[in-house]
Structures are given as structure tokens and as C-alpha cells.
Amino acid sequence: MKDLNVLLAGFGGQGILFMGKLIAYAGLIDGREVSWLPSYGPEMRGGTANCSVCLSDEPVCSPLVTEPDILIVMNQPSFDRFIGSVAPGGIAIIDSSLVGGKTAREDISSFYVPATALAGEKGLQGLANIILVGKMLAETRFCSLDTMRAAIEKAVPPRKQNLVAGNMRAVELGMDS
Amino acid sequence: MNMAQRVLMKGNEALAQAAIDAGCRCFFGYPITPQTELAAYMAKQMPKVGGVYLQAESEIAAINMVQGAAAAGVRAMTSSSSPGISLKTEGISYMCGSDLPALIVNVQRGGPGLGGIQPSQADYWQATKAPGHGDLHILVFTPSSVQEMVDLVGKAFDLADKYRMPAMILADGLLGQMMEPVEIGGKEVPVPAAKPWAACGHRNQREHNIVNSLYLTASELEDLVKKRFERYREIEAKEPLCEAYLVDDADIVVAAYGAAARIAKAAVRTARERGIRAGLLRPVTVWPFPKKDFQAAARHASRFLCVEMNMGQMVDDVRLAVECSKPVGFFGTTGGVIPTPAQVLEQIENLSGGAR
């Protein structure tokens, strides 16, 4: 399978790092080499957060993604900062509830999903990030739905397994959006 | 490889678990980014194995607690990041002077001063040349993956015990913060060697042991230091570790350790695809420095390129190792900036005269 370099970006508290964990676990479950690298800083909720995830059949060399094959953004500053960095032929998935405007780039595929609004309408508050992962799954088929379910079960703490069903609903909602 | 055993862990946490697995039962530390997850993991897990986790009032207190535990024969460690390591240097020197084994972990960040909190390799000189005052060395291991953050811990403790000296894991914020799949645990842990020198109570059964670094008679101190340096020479002969990647026929040999080596490896791979005979020498120990690997490469390579996340520190050791028989260039980023494979590739291409 082709290497997949993913960059996820938004505000702290939106579940950016958790999105990265899901994608990394999916790779791990499928027996691939993976790396997950958070931006870290003094900020917690409200600051900017981004996360690099690499999936490969070879050991990952540089875990820092500077030219993502896939970019998922959940706020305006991240959109402005990273949309130009997407590799030609790559994919950008944008939470259009939180990002105004569209990219002029025609060498990438851009998908505008009102994930935050959708999550609110469907009683999936706080799962806008997972809706976007669902969209990524639909557009790339980087893993199977079974693998994604297993990844969610891994990434969700043992005492919160009751959240798995809601996460799966969010994935499916994202896949259909 | 049994995939089922692979788990996803942060470098800091994996290192902590590996230390517990290696029989470490005393951890003393003080929080600092980007190392804090290591201490947090220890705080949770140490009590479960009957060990001691203690957050000291300062880094200086922590290293002195390590010294005390080590003197009593316990496998003890501390961890910190660059500014905190500077505070520990006094204690490290005392442990060298007292021939005490212990593990010190430095998850490096940008400096000098408080610097920044992003990954850096700017403490290479400190670790390899002057980790404290006096004529001394410590063992310095440089992991390049989360798996090595695990694998080198037991080795560091074992060699520290064997040679009765402190060992350091010289990592950086990137390795500490990133998650990768690791195989951890499940191995039989060899019982650490007996420590007949330990000051742990003689119960009137033997002469009492003294752990000390103060020698007021110059000739006595000279004899002791000279004996210690015989041990250092033995270590330099027996213990250097180095990974060679595509070096056998390499014309341009890139030298890099830790996180920088991962980036350099990507660049070397692409250079090969473009017909440039590039290779990578990755020291896994930087003291002792793997001089022989560099000397061997110097026989066929036309030049070296040292890549570091600092202004050029290990490059000195590469030049010394090859005795300036071949040109040794340098490329680095500093202050917490991580180089990209493309930047390193550009350097390699320039050195090869742009050959494709």
C-alpha cells in the first residue's frame, strides 16, 4: 500500500490528537508501520493543536508531516496555514462549519463537510472530528470499517467503551456526507 | 514478528516502562517539558511494583537522591530536559567520582538558557565532553526510535553496573512525544549483578563500605582517576554501537544520531533513488564514539556530511574519528526547528555535484 502522510489541525479540545490516534491505531491493527507526532506546547484547550500521522509499509523515517497527502482542518488559522502545504494530488477535508471560504487550488481534492453543525444536529456533540475521519475513510479507504471499529475500541479508554457506538455513528455519518 | 504484541506508546512512556522492566525501583525527578510524561508514568506505575517514585523539590535534589539510592546498590534513575540536566551536572560528577551506576535521561529541548520546548540536540557537547566537572566520562546512548527508547534502557543500566559509572539516554522532544509501535515487556529480566561495594548496611558481617569522591592527597586522586581512565579505554574498545545504512559502497556518508538520523535516512534513501551513492552512519552510543565505523567508511567515502539539530557539535567527533582524512561538512537546524528530508537531500546533492 502507498505511504499515507496525514496532517490534522485545529484548536486544542477539538480532538485533533484523538483523530490522529484513531488513524495510527488503524494502521497498527492492519500491521503497518505508523508514527504519531503531536505538536506540543504550553497551551491546552483553546490553543492551536496539530498532529502528524504517517502510515507506511516501511519503518517511518521522518514523523513530521510537512507535505500531507491528507489534511484535515478544523479552524480558520489551520486552513490558512496548511492548505498550501498539501501535496499535489492530495486531499483536504475541511470543517466548513468553522472555516469560511474555499481554496483556489485545483491540484488537490477538497471536501467541505459541515462537521460541527452535523454533529450538533445528530446528537453527536463533540464528535465532529470523528465525522471528518469518516469522510477521510470514504475518500481514501485507507482501512476497512472493521479496522476502524477496532481502532476506536483501542483509542477509547476501557472505562468509556460506551462511547464506541456514538463514534461509529459519527464515522458512518462522515462517510455518507 | 508477532504483530499482536506491538503496542502504540509515546517514547517517554515506553522508556519509563522499559526502566521498570529492567529492574529500576527508584525514580527521582522534577517536571519539565518535553519529558514530563516519563515522570507521570513512573508516578503511576512505580508504586505497583513496590518501587519509589518521588518528585523532588528541584533537579539538584533529585540527582542527589539518585546518588544516595545508587550508593545503596539500587537501580535508580532520573529524567529531565536540557535546563534541568544542567542543574544535575554536579551530582553526575559526584557519581562519576564515587564510581556509582545510575541512569540519567535527557529529553533535549532547545537552548541555551530556558531556551524553548521544541526538540533539539544541542546538549551533545554537554553529554559527551563535560557532563560534570573533572576528568570523567559517562556512557551516552542515542535512541532513534521509540523501540530504541525501550531497548537501550536495559543495556544502559547493565553497562552502568558493569563499569560502575552513570549512563545517559540522550533523547529529544520528538522521540519523547511521538508514538510508534513497540514490542515491550515479556522478556526475562536478568538479575542485576551483585554490588559488593554498596553501602547498604554491613550488619557486623563485613568491613563497612565507603562511597566517597573526596581525596585530598593529590597522588591518591591521580591514581584513582588513572585507574578509572583504564576502564574508559576498555569501554572505548568494547562498547561503541553504530548502525550502518547503505554505507558499504557509499561515496557520501551522512552522520546523524537520534531524531536527526531518521530524517537523514529518508534523504539518503531518496538520494540512492536518484543515483547518488549515499549512506548513513548512525551512532547509537556517542560516548564511546564509534570511531572505527567512521574510519572504515573513510577508506571508500569521498566526504562526510554531519546532520544535527544544533549548530554543529558531533561534527567535531566525526572529524576527529576520520583524522581529517576526508572533508566533513555540516548541516543543522537549531532552537527547536526540525530539519526536513528535502533540506538534507539538497545538501547531499550539492556535495555530489548535483549528480543524478
Description:
The complex is a heterodimer of chains A (177) and B (356). With 177 residues, chain A is of the alpha/beta class. Chain A has a single domain (4-176), classed as 3-Layer(aba) Sandwich (Pyruvate-ferredoxin Oxidoreductase, domain 3), CATH 3.40.920.10. In chain A, 37% of the residues lie in helices and 21% in strands. Chain A has helices at residues 16-29, 76-82, 115-121, 128-140, 145-155, 164-176; strands spanning 4-11, 33-38, 48-56, 70-73, 91-95, 109-113. Chain A has a six-stranded mixed beta sheet, with helices on both faces. In chain A, β4 (70-73), α2 (76-82) and β5 form a beta-alpha-beta unit. In chain A, α1 (16-29) packs across α5, α3 (115-121) packs across α4 (128-140) and α4 (128-140) packs across α6 (164-176). Chain A is globular and about 40 Å long. Chain B is of the alpha/beta class and 356 residues long. In chain B, 53% of the residues are buried. In chain B, α3 (59-71) runs parallel beside α4. Chain B starts with 5 loop residues before the first strand and ends in a 5-residue tail after the last helix. The model of chain B has no long low-confidence stretch (mean pLDDT 95). Helix content of chain B is 40%, strand content 19%. Chain B contains twelve helices and 14 strands. Chain B folds into two domains: 3-184 and 215-238, Rossmann fold, CATH 3.40.50.970; 242-351, Rossmann fold (3-Layer(aba) Sandwich). In chain B, the strands form three sheets. Chain B has a seven-stranded mixed beta sheet with strand order 3-2-4-5-7-6-12, sandwiched between helices. Chains A and B meet through α1 and β2 of A and α7, β8 and α9 of B.
How would you briefly describe this protein structure?
By secondary structure, chain A is an alpha/beta fold.
Average pLDDT of chain A, rounded to a whole number, is: 94
The top-level CATH class of chain A is Alpha Beta
| Tally of separate helices of chain A | 6
Number of domains of chain A: 1
